[in-house]
Amino acid sequence: MGADVPYTAAGSRVTDRPGDASPFALGLLLRRAHWRAAGVMEEALRPLGIELRHFAVLIVLVDRGPTVQRDLVAATGSDKAGIMRVVDDLERRGLAVRRGVPGDRRVRAVEITPEGLELFDAAHVAAEPLAGRLVAGLGPGEAERLRDLLTRFAHPAGGQG
User: Fold this and answer.
1) pTM, 2 dp
2) Which of 26, 50, 77, 115 has the fewest Cβ atoms within 10 Å of its own Cβ atom?
């Protein structure tokens, strides 16, 4: 950076404050929104003895059924070592099991157990009152509109993104 970079007033530099129009503002605001939502959901999961990273794997298992670990990596945005630790935790708690995949002895699929499914349902019950806090400052219909916009943003038509 140095002498060839023009000075810019601090007020015009990128932030995540309301009204920032920089090209980074949307990403920064989404990051702040994620932190806030994740904090509230962690609060809901804490009494159940799991973290959001565990719940993310349970979501995939409920949605897809038995899933090989490498696909859990891609589906959760985690890394291989992180998924191994999460699956180990879930297995220790009796919430998931690893099973061999027919035709490939090296590959293991992770499957949710009945106890895992019970905890998954309990997490939704625990999160319901807390989730309302996330949208408490929005007006009528705005929570649904936000969900719709974020869904379209996260899952663009044509599978781009």
Assistant:
1) 0.80
2) 77
Report the amino acid identity of residue 133. Answer: R
Contacts of 61 (CB under 8 A, 6+ apart): 67, 96, 110, 111, 112, 116
**Residue 116, amino acid:** G
Report residue 24's pLDDT band, with 50, 70 and 90 as the boundaries. confident
Report the C-alpha gap between 80 and 101 in whole angstroms: 18
- If phi over 0 gives left and psi between -120 and 50 gives alpha, with beta otherwise, what is residue 20? beta
End-to-end, the C-alpha distance of the chain in Å comes to 31
- The amino acid at residue 122 is A
Residues shown for the chain: 161
- Using the predicted structure, report yes or no on whether residue 7 has a pLDDT greater than 80: no
Tell me whether residue 58 is exposed, middle or buried, using C-beta atoms within 10 angstroms of its C-beta: 0 to 12, 13 to 18, 19 or more: buried
CA distance 154 to 66: 24
